[in-house]
Amino acid sequence: MMRYNFFYFVFFALILALTRIIPHPPNFTPILASAIMAPLLVKDRMIGVAIPILAMFISDILLGFHPFQFAIYFTIFTIGLASPMEKNYVKLGLMAIGGSVWFFITTNFAVWIILDSYPKTIEGLMTSYILAIPFFKNTIISTFLFTGIIVISMQYLDILSKKTNYLIINFIGKFVK
CB neighbours (10 Å) of residue 155? Predict the structure, then answer.
């Protein structure tokens, strides 16, 4: 199955990593949208889940790691596990909302619990969520936007994937005979 998804795995992992490295508004990346859409695109949930996590890891090598890295990776993993495996606009829209909310809840909880920025009280937790609302706006807008772009582009991405896989298989086939 992996050889048929080579294009998606490499192309999306590199493009997603690049979108985190180039200047962008805070939390405005296609990472969550790819966690929602990659399992559907590659028709394999685990490979699809691996794509945004690999992209995060590649870009984090350059950007630097932080103490709540695992919480972010785990959240992306769970979004990919929960994403629909059929092209249903309502389910994908609900997943864009739900995935954004889940990301907001889990990552801000991780910031509150791990860092010393907020007191370890209910008020401190609420403060961490309240101060993160501007980031949430960017998360939800970017997740909807990029999920929509990927949905619209699916047929073209499939064609590009098939052509890329054909070229790679034929190229490798010349050396493996």
Answer: 9
pLDDT tens-digit map of 128-139? 999 999 999 999
Tell me, what amino acid is at 166? Y
pTM over 0.90? The answer is no
Residues in the chain: 177
Instruction: Give dist(CA 108, CA 106) in Å, integer.
Output: 6
Query: What does each C-alpha distance from 119 to 107, 109, 113, 123, 167 come to in angstroms?
Result: 16, 12, 9, 8, 56
Chain segment 36-59, per-residue pLDDT in tens: 999 999 999 999 999 999 999 999
**Angle in degrees, CA 103, 105, 111, rounded to 5:** 95
